Amino acid sequence: MASRWKSNSSMSSSTLEEDNIATEQDPLLSIQNRLENRHNAVNSACGSSYRQDDLNTSRKTRCATIVSHLRHFKQKHREFLAEFIGTMILILLTCGISAEETLQIGPNKSWLTSSLGSGLAVLVAVCVSGHVSGAHINPAVTITFCLFSGFPVRKVPTYLAAQFMGAFAGAALLYTIIEPAITQFDHGQRHILGELGTAGIFGTYPPLYVGIASAAASEIIGTALLLLVIMTSGHPNNLPFRTAQGIMISVGVMTICLGLGYTSGFSLNPARDLGPRLFTAVAGWGFEVFSVHHFYAFVPMLAPIFGAALGGLIYTIFID
């Protein structure tokens, strides 16, 4: 075995010596070997570069695909998204103003602040979603437009779902912002009514001395007036007001709230009450929010729909 290993070693040594001799004798062979080594190194570097380029291209393709899907989703559901966002903004701002009034201690509480703030909140929501969906942001408006203005029936479920979901989301978003202030105010014990009652930040609750019939009448008449303002300001022949319809609706909401809102808490919008009220039911106030004050929750849920239909009927018969 040892002799065989020695013979192999001697053969390898002789081979290397022959290669070295050949290289020394032929300089061109040395240059060719160097060029081949350099070519192999370049190919290796290019291969890694190509792999990196392929990886970057793959990432760009995935990003482009995601963006394309998002654009397709937006185009397909743009009216739903506009109503959802518009209603969410409306509830976030309206209930935020109510929170300021409820959690404020002292003589500075003012019905004027709530009324003006609610009107401005409507204006902001209309500006955000009006050019896409028409900014109904109110199930009563959608149903009335369907009955009297030719709004497609097939779109009604989409609009209503967006409005109620947006209202719930707006209430939830506001709660995440002001939860510490609510806890500081009621010491962590959620009350619906009374001096420490905070459910009124989200839902509408009339004074206990106001009867159901009186509050319902206030909601019906107020929403009828609101629809008269909306439909009149949007009439093609009413050009001066049509160009500023959002402002006219905002002023209408302010005026209606100042004149009639104190009796019922001025919902004028089923989504404005039901979405936040449902949120309070699951966020710690309990489902008693639906039964308090002789099940008053059904008044802001139904009365605005009847009131809006009445306003649409009056407009169609006497004004249009």
Automatic annotation (TrEMBL):
Gene Ontology CC entries for this record: plasma membrane
- Predominantly, its location class is membrane
Keywords per UniProt: Membrane, Transmembrane, Transmembrane helix, Transport
The compartments listed are: Membrane
InterPro entries of this UniProt entry?
Answer: Aquaporin-like, MIP, MIP/Aquaporin, MIP_CS
The UniProt entry's sequence similarity note says: Belongs to the MIP/aquaporin (TC 1.A.8) family.
Protein name from the UniProt record? Aquaporin
Species of origin reads Mucor velutinosus
